[in-house]
Design a protein that fits this description.
130 residues; mainly alpha; 5 helices; 80% helix; transmembrane; DUF1761 domain-containing protein; membrane; transmembrane helix; DUF1761
Amino acid sequence: MTDLNGWAVLAAAASAFLLGGIWYGPLFKQAWCREAGVDPDKPNGHPALVFGGAFVLSLVAAAVFAAFLGPAPALGYAVGAGLAAGLCWVAASFGINYLFAGRSLKLWLIDGGYHTLQFALYGLILGLWH
């Protein structure tokens, strides 16, 4: 982990946080709330804990993905690995849970799409910033 670019990891985590604000905000908020059974006007916990926790978890995911890629991954490899990790590990794992929970395909597409782009962004940033 000492070979990792801490600034790139921090930027990758921030990119996921910003993507989430757009993805679960203006793009898919209403659809996601409807499919997830969440009231869009009722907070789901204290905002500092929710957003702070989300950022910490994004930071953990970015750091571990950076360690997986290594200190100087080629850009194409890093983005491809990000797409694969987001779609084939994260979204596929969500899909298993969503099947057993009886959640909708639409909710899976929203959540799985976010995580696919999240890891692709991680790969883009980590592949560009050695």
